[in-house]
Design brief:
globular; 25% strand; two-stranded antiparallel ribbon; alpha/beta
């Protein structure tokens, strides 16, 4: 684990990781109920967290030959902004984008916002993967637009099936910076 990753993990633990009160549970986007919740946006919108996220994403993707980086709104928006700033600081301009949940009904009526162009090599990012459905929506939209999804990267994998979903959908380069085990949650070996 790099120094930046270690620092990011500590901030995620402090700002984003929560355990439910006794007798209560969190409902996740996937529909599952959980005794813990990771709100990656709480780290991504802090100045220290955003800087570290950008550097970690840059470090994890810099050798993939990317033209663009982004993901599904809302979670991927601050990650994308942090990543493109880090790429620029490293002298490697890159386009950012995000995929809307649905086509907006006004203005340009776009599903994908940002500088994405057909044929680009793309990384899809998200803060937390449970089953991977949100990231897969972004992957499908980007593919339909005419881009190649080179890799999918999450800050935290809850080890609940995302990797398997991505593999079933032709995403062979799946990366997670951390797993839920880094937060002290014991997950059986057959689940992750």
């Amino acid at each position: 684990m790099t120094d930046a990753e270690q620092q990011l993990l500590e901030i995620l633990k402090k700002r984003s990781f929560r355990r439910a009160e006794p007798g209560k549970m969190f409902q996740l986007v996937s529909g599952e109920m959980s005794e813990y919740f990771i709100d990656g946006k709480m780290t991504a919108v802090s100045s220290e967290g955003a800087g570290l996220i950008g550097e970690v994403i840059y470090d994890r993707t810099k050798d993939a030959g990317l033209d663009a980086i982004g993901g599904l709104q809302v979670g991927a928006v601050p990650l994308t902004a942090a990543a493109v700033i880090s790429y620029q600081h490293h002298g490697r301009p890159i386009e950012g984008f995000w995929v809307r949940e649905e086509i907006k009904s006004h203005g340009t009526q776009k599903l994908i916002e940002g500088g994405l162009r057909k044929g680009m090599r793309v990384a899809v990012v998200d803060d937390v993967f449970t089953k991977g459905g949100s990231a897969l929506k972004a992957v499908e939209a980007v593919r339909a637009f005419g881009c190649e999804v080179v890799l999918v990267l999450g800050l935290v994998d809850r080890l609940r099936g995302a990797k398997e979903l991505f593999l079933r959908n032709g995403i062979t380069d799946y990366r997670a910076v951390f797993t839920i085990r880094n937060f002290g949650i014991d997950v059986p070996a057959d689940e992750g």
